[in-house]
Amino acid sequence: MHNDIKEILISKEAIEAKCKEIGRQLTKEYDGKFPLAIGVLKGAMPFMADLLRYIETNLEMDFMDVTSYGDAMQSSGEVKIVKDLNTKVEGRDLLIIEDIIDSGLTLKYLVDLFKYRKANSVKIVTLLDKPSGRSAAIKADLIGFEVPNEFVVGYGLDYQEKYRNLPYIGVLKPKIYGGEEI
Ligand SMILES: O=P(O)(O)OC[C@H]1O[C@H](OP(=O)(O)OP(=O)(O)O)[C@H](O)[C@@H]1O
Ligand code: HPA
Ligand SMILES: [Mg+2]
């Protein structure tokens, strides 16, 4: 698995430090409140698990499983709900937790849905932001790291369902996705 990686972009240690930093900010933000933290499966799972341990206020957790990439490296443009929330969002303060914002289509879909469902507030925290990929106008409130215009894997992010369990964020060797070796 590690052998398939061309370059590590963000180390395990840097991710850990960032989770602490963002966790501290969110602790202040939600002090005295009871937000609903929504993990966007599957990719956000490791980030959510690590980040929430640094948010020192009461919160509720729920998960939404949405998919639009499948096995491809480009968004299909169609966001499909695989699993919806179990919790009512009306009147709640929501914190959407994502692994990456690329085209922005996934989050645009979710933010519109939660507004329609009458959430009181909707905030977005994403570990990674790839602004060069954007086609929907969407911005996160908190961003861990900006990444270049490359397909990244690890720490929740997959290529054809593999590499989610890498502890860092990296770029694959071109031969893995059938590209030219440079
Ligand atoms: O900004 P976008 O272009 O919409 O891309 C971001 C979304 O794409 C990935 O999900 P994916 O559809 O691959 O599902 P997964 O998390 O189960 O891998 C990623 O985990 C984000 O949720
Ligand atoms: O760069 C990426 N890697 C993995 N999954 C993704 N989903 C959107 N962008 C990416
Ligand atoms: Mg994926």
From TrEMBL:
Residues 13-160 form the Phosphoribosyltransferase domain. The keyword Metal-binding applies. Pfam families: Pribosyltran (PF00156). Coiled coil: none annotated. Gene3D superfamilies: 3.40.50.2020. Keywords: Cytoplasm, Glycosyltransferase, Magnesium, Metal-binding, Nucleotide-binding, Purine salvage, Transferase. It catalyses: GMP + diphosphate = guanine + 5-phospho-alpha-D-ribose 1-diphosphate; IMP + diphosphate = hypoxanthine + 5-phospho-alpha-D-ribose 1-diphosphate. Its main location: cytoplasm. SUPFAM superfamilies: PRTase-like. Its cofactor is Mg(2+). It comes from the Bacteria. Pathway: Purine metabolism; GMP biosynthesis via salvage pathway; GMP from guanine: step 1/1; Purine metabolism; IMP biosynthesis via salvage pathway; IMP from hypoxanthine: step 1/1. It is found in: Cytoplasm. GO terms for molecular function: glycosyltransferase activity. InterPro entries: HGPRT, Hxn_phspho_trans, PRTase-like, PRTase_dom. Belongs to the purine/pyrimidine phosphoribosyltransferase family. Purine salvage pathway enzyme that catalyzes the transfer of the ribosyl-5-phosphate group from 5-phospho-alpha-D-ribose 1-diphosphate (PRPP) to the N9 position of the 6-oxopurines hypoxanthine and guanine to form the corresponding ribonucleotides IMP (inosine 5'-monophosphate) and GMP (guanosine 5'-monophosphate), with the release of PPi. NCBIfam families: HGPRTase. This is Hypoxanthine phosphoribosyltransferase.
